[in-house]
Design brief:
By secondary structure, the protein is of the alpha+beta class. It has 15 helices and 8 strands. It starts with a helix and ends in a 12-residue tail after the last helix.
Length: 468
């Protein structure tokens, strides 16, 4: 039934396209893996988009999404995240912040959170002032990840975050769940919140942290596809790539099958998934992307070109400026990556690039959500409501809080992105339908003219004007 519906939609699109010249788009229905019997909506919409929209249109719509929609997406993420925390971990009730969490001068208050339980992808192994760090951290005054890095450097001393919490880092001498633990953050609540509720604290904490800065998202997307940052950094990067690629596969499982059950089998990778993980690790470690359709590797994207793009985005604040920068940079970076491929391969590989980019937006956002800036908040909250955080790595987090993890994707990110794709498709189908109507009128006029000529046995005068 699902397969029949997909084929019916594609056949209707194909019929519309047959009347219209789409010189910059190849008919690739036969290559669409989404044309099957499963309920993978995201892949099908991406394939449908690729079938009706030219490359330039896909690029402009993608850039528009990044420039226009990140702020409302961040607002939605924060709003729904607050609701999910209450839904899953506090039964929608509230309580006063415990006295032992309010900061005291003797450093006896607060909660200890191990560094390795919140830094799943080894972000803190990168200096914010390094070439790579400048593309992964924001302004230390605004970016909570950069703030936490500075807290680590100032080991033993507490730093204040917006009069909400005070955080210090301790290399040794601390306990977590009664066990001596090295490298922990100690988090206590600012005295301003004495007598206030836990959810007042959490709402303010979440609101105080900027999530989606366009330049930081772009750098993660390009690194996820090409490994531009990973290959440049190279040192001690393998474990990070393994963690990121395994996480990406787990995310893909939910994107492709939103109702999938998260049990022990969810964390077992099929042979095909293992091959994909190894291939992506191998290609990203050398700064290239593997193109599945033609079984070729792209060329490296120049690190400096990507760095210049990120630097330009940092200082350009208007939407027009950001659009111009992205338009120009996309042309350069894509041409670099596909420079060694034949012209006939480019059509398929541009489509594959944009599919990777679409998914890269979602994964880039999730990479930011699951970075220390929010994981510290989650860990703190889980400790408050249950006494333990319940996780030591990203797989533990997903296993212990599976409903929360799925809802972040299914209730926040996926609907927003499907809406974006669907609106583009509907707009383009309307254009196709209007052009089909014009073509039908032209054909009707042509047949009418031929009929008149056959009846009068003379040619009608050419007025030099096309009636339709």
């Amino acid at each position: 039934m699902i397969l029949d519906s997909k084929l019916d939609i594609l056949s209707r699109i194909s019929a519309l396209r047959s009347l219209i010249d789409f010189s910059d788009t190849e008919n690739t229905f036969s290559n669409f893996q989404s044309v099957n019997g499963n309920e993978n909506v995201l892949s099908f919409l991406i394939d449908l988009l690729k079938s009706i929209v030219g490359f330039d249109k896909i690029k402009s719509e993608t850039i528009n999404f990044l420039v226009v929609n990140l702020t409302p997406i961040e607002t939605s993420i924060k709003l729904l995240m607050k609701k999910l925390l209450k839904k899953y971990f506090f039964c929608n009730t509230d309580s006063i912040i415990p006295e032992n969490l309010i900061c005291k001068n003797d450093n006896s208050s607060g909660i200890n959170i191990p560094l390795n339980s919140i830094d799943f992808f080894n972000l803190f192994s990168i200096d914010p002032e390094s070439d790579t760090g400048l593309m992964l951290y924001g302004n230390p005054q605004l970016d909570f990840n950069a703030f936490l890095y500075e807290v680590i450097q100032d080991s033993g001393n507490a730093s204040n975050w917006n009069d909400i919490v005070e955080i210090s880092f301790h290399e040794s001498g601390q306990k977590v769940d009664g066990i001596a633990t090295n490298n922990v953050f100690r988090v206590c609540v600012h005295e301003n919140y004495n007598g206030k509720t836990v959810h007042e604290l959490m709402d303010d904490f979440i609101d105080s942290i900027p999530l989606l800065q366009i330049e930081l998202l772009i750098s993660r997307i390009f690194d996820g596809i090409f490994g531009t940052l990973s290959s440049y950094r190279n040192t001690n990067c393998f474990d990070t790539l393994v963690a990121e690629e395994e996480f990406n596969v787990l995310v893909d499982k939910i994107l492709d099958l939103p109702d999938i059950e998260i049990d022990n089998s969810f964390f077992e990778f099929s042979n095909a998934e293992k091959v994909s993980i190894r291939t992506n690790i191998s290609s990203r470690s050398v700064g290239k992307a593997y193109l599945k359709d033609c079984c070729l590797y792209t060329q490296q994207i120049d690190f400096q070109d990507l760095s210049d793009l990120i630097s330009d985005l940092r200082i350009k604040s208007t939407e027009i400026e950001q659009r111009t920068i992205l338009e120009n940079s996309f042309n350069v970076l894509i041409e670099e990556s596909l420079s060694d491929l034949s012209e006939s391969d480019n059509a398929y590989n541009l489509l594959e690039f944009y599919e990777g980019f679409f998914r890269g937006i979602l994964k880039g956002i999730l990479n930011i959500v699951f970075s220390p800036k929010l994981m510290l908040i989650f860990s703190f909250y889980f400790n408050v409501v249950s006494g333990v955080s319940g996780f030591t790595n990203v797989k533990d987090f997903i296993r212990q809080h599976s409903g929360f993890f799925k809802d972040i994707i299914n209730e926040i990110l996926l609907p927003l992105f499907l809406k974006f794709l669907f609106e583009i498709i509907i707009k383009e189908v309307k254009i196709l339908l209007s052009r089909e109507l014009v073509e039908k009128k032209k054909e009707k006029a042509r047949l009418y003219r031929l009929q008149l000529e056959s009846l009068t046995n003379i040619g009608l005068p050419n007025l030099g004007v096309d009636i339709f």
